[in-house]
Amino acid sequence: MSEIPRSMDYAMSKAVAVNADTNLRQFASNNGTTFSPTVNEIRINVAADGFLDGTKSYLYFTINNLNGTAGEALVLDNDALCWIDQIRVESQGSVLERLERSAVYTNLKGRWQDGVGQVLARNAKMGGPVSAASVGNDGLSLDEGTASTFACKLPLGMLNAHHGRAIPAGGSFDIVIRVNATAAQCFKWESNGATAFSITNPRFYAPVYRVDSPEVMSEYSQALQERGIMWSGDVVKTYINSQTAGAGPKTAQINDRSLSLKSLITVVRSSAIVAAANSNSVGSSQLLGVTQMRYIISGQNYPQDTVQYSTTDPGRLYEEAQKALAKDGETYCEPTCSRALFVATDLTGQGILAVDLKRFDDEKLMMTGMNTASTAAPNLLEITGDANAVAADITTFAICDSTFVLDGRGTITASA
Q1: Does an H or E element contain 296, and which?
Q2: Vertex 355, ends 353 and 360: CA angle to 5°?
Q3: 23 alpha-carbon distance from chain centroid
Q4: Three-state DSSP class for 395?
Q5: pTM of this prediction?
Q6: How far is CA 125 from CA 59, 76, 276, 281, in A?
Q7: Cα–Cα distance list, 34 to 44, 66, 90, 197, 199 (Å)
Q8: For 38-90, how does the pLDDT look when each residue is reduced to its tens digit (9 = 90+)?
Q9: Tally of CB atoms within 10 A around 132
Q10: Of 74, 268, 270, 408, which residue has the fewest beta carbons closer than 10 angstroms?
Q11: Side-by-side strand order, sheet with 74-77
Q12: CA 337 to CA 334: how far, in whole Å?
């Protein structure tokens, strides 16, 4: 049986959208307008009178360089979210999502998922590095006594749901953002002794849809009362360790307990670089001294054979990183990290450790990762290093599926 091509199939057309009104809503912080490492918790209540489109949402705020003397500029450590230590989503006292070391993870997403086209947008809206064949760690520079305002997408699974699902009507939640209490780690400072800054007027913007069809809303209300409304997204759990200098195997405890663990990504940051105010404390990561690595989950090696690494043999690690950081339903991400930056051992370094644990790369499927919640067996990262290995902070991000449910009482729950 022959068929005509899509270009000639005039019977095929788009369905007509339901009648709805859309408004861009602003949600301001309800506990102040000025924040810093000493007044460091921003709380924004989000109570929309409709369906909130988190995929088009952003945080809007101003960074102020409070230093007043020449030679005391600040440089964004990758982008304008580099001052955030933690982001939580709460509903009626329960934590639905918690992202620790948020700035480090935001940099990973920007570096490995955005591709060159999105890098230009990141530079314009978030002060990120200027687009090039590969992108470095320095973002926009703010001179002494100046300020700049940014619009930044938050790296939260609840907002960036699978299939672009909107947050259902009828629920409310709080976005809680914690400023890093160590000012020296918030930016790359021109002077080690001048690290004064503030964040002012943080606001959360998102489109909110109100459906004008009584029939549609009646069906929605019935479903909400009978079984609740469920949606899903990729959330990130954080595990923090450290390593000592010198040769030999180093072990980092992960012990993740997730229903669907999709990937593990580990950032190794030199302790000396993290502590220095005039360095890329957030954005740089080095594989200095690393010779091989493996993740051990429930007694099994992942990947199944140990990954060897050197500055002349980075291919397998880069392969795992490109799969581990792929967007939902995709096999590979679109990185802007070159080979030279991946193997660099100074402030420009961008090397990471990673393993992809997804069984399938299909956006139609849920629970494609490993179930680590069904066992109490330990989960570890084992790094073997030579004499060049330095004392370092080891941060591992576990990407997993999470389901969110809004019930008829307006309560939102999460399970990951």
Answers
A1: strand 290-297
A2: 155
A3: 26
A4: strand
A5: 0.94
A6: 11, 13, 27, 22
A7: 13, 12, 22, 10, 6
A8: 999 999 999 999 999 999 999 999 999 999 999 999 999 989 999 999 999 99
A9: 11
A10: 408
A11: 138-142, 74-77, 188-189
A12: 9
